[in-house]
Design goal:
Structural class: alpha+beta
Strand order of the largest sheet: 10-12-13-15-14
Radius of gyration: 52 Å
Oligomer: single chain
Number of strands: 15
CATH superfamily of one domain: Histidine kinase-like ATPase, C-terminal domain
Number of helices: 14
CATH architecture of one domain: 2-Layer Sandwich
Amino acid sequence: MSLKFFLSIYARLVGVTALVVLICTLLFTGINSVRHQFWHERFAEPLMRWLAATPVPVRQYHWMPSMFGLRSGDPSQFDLTTITTERLGYGQIVAQRTDVGYRYLVRSFDGEVISLRLKQTYQEMAQAVALVIRWHLETTAPDQRAEVIDQLAEALLVSIKPVQNLERLPDQTVLEGVADSGLAVFNEQGEHRAHVLLRLSEGDLIVVQMPPPFNPWAWPVIALLMVVIGSVLAVALFLAIRLVEGHLRKVESVAVRIGRGEMGARVESEDGTLVSRLADSFNSMAEHIQRLVNVQREMIHAVSHELRTPVARIRFGVQMIESGNGPEVLAKQLEGIDGDIQELDELIDEILTYARLEQGGPVFSLREGSVTDIVRQVVSEQQVIRTGIQIDCRIDDASERWALSDMEPRYIHRAIQNLVGNAARYAEGRVVVNCHLDEDNCRIDVEDDGPGIPEQDWEKVFTAFARLDDSRTRTSGGYGLGLSIVRRILYWHGGQAFVGRSDELGGARFSLVWPRRKPADSFL
């Protein structure tokens, strides 16, 4: 995996995460601002409705103006907006945020506006409700309190229960608060809603349980956030899959085009994408297939051309045998036919070797062998065959030290043999084989004193069935496959074969260079 691709994926994941966080934050804040406003109005509604139904609440609950800012009066006495006035006219409870808390407004039955100000909404509302309950219970006969408790609980939407089991009394701190002020707000263990403990003048204890406070993490909010997160991730995943699918469709389209015969079709892909390596591998495969197809076409064309001459000579020889002009002529024709058949065998062997190397190569089993021994063996073999040519072998002492190399001896022998035989074929009288070996590389130079090869044709000589003027006539021999085979052998050894000009002899110089030791990541 490339660093660019990793950073690209990482940046996109960070972007999606930031987007999810931003959307959830905005959604959470926006929804809860509305829910919080709605909760304030619903939470204050029972007490405000009770005050609106009470004649002159400021006088009846005389402690509330000083403790909770209770006011009542004409709407003109309050700084009301048009919307607030309309809402109050519809009988709604209005909660307004102020600098020191919340102001709650309601219109009474006689048309006046009642206002209540709370700094700490939940706790002070619990105290106000508890004080109202205590006032009514204090002014009610003991035998009627049960009925009044039920009425107050229903109207104020709270739970009111006398304390009858002393074991369920809250801790000492709450009791001390009740002893000092007559009431104390507390929370039971495991609950978020407030409880108020009241002490009546007779000493009876009453517990008032308030509705739960505002919960920003209510399950509908959590469910909505989960839906949003799932939706954003689904969209991101869809776009990512669509992007990958688009790249894969490019590969598929090129594969279809190649299947139709458009061998030059290639996949265009930017670096750092998910399928960039696939595209590179596919293009490499397509180039290899195109080269193989071109080689096959050239081979079929060249083979058909090469086969014509020996086949024609064999046909002519058969015709001469049929004429039966004498034993000497018959023997000569049979000898010629045998030579032509030998030529066909050599041609087929060259073609099969080249095809095997070109279409992926043999499964090389590299093993350690002596390069200098192979060079000496090839030179001695060619000296026997090329009696009219002087073939010299030069191997210095330094090269003898690094003679052992990882190679396939049979194919290295074939490559050197092709070069030496080719040089001897075109040399006027001398061929020199230089062997240069060091710790890292092996190099074999084969030079001759022949006419040489023009510089513009240096690459062309390695092309299969290539013709350089009259170099492939019957007098010089050869089929144009020897040098192609040499280059492919060196390719599968991780090396190169190239041609130049001999400074010493003036003719051509062919060189083989390959690593002395097999690389750790070699494909051989």
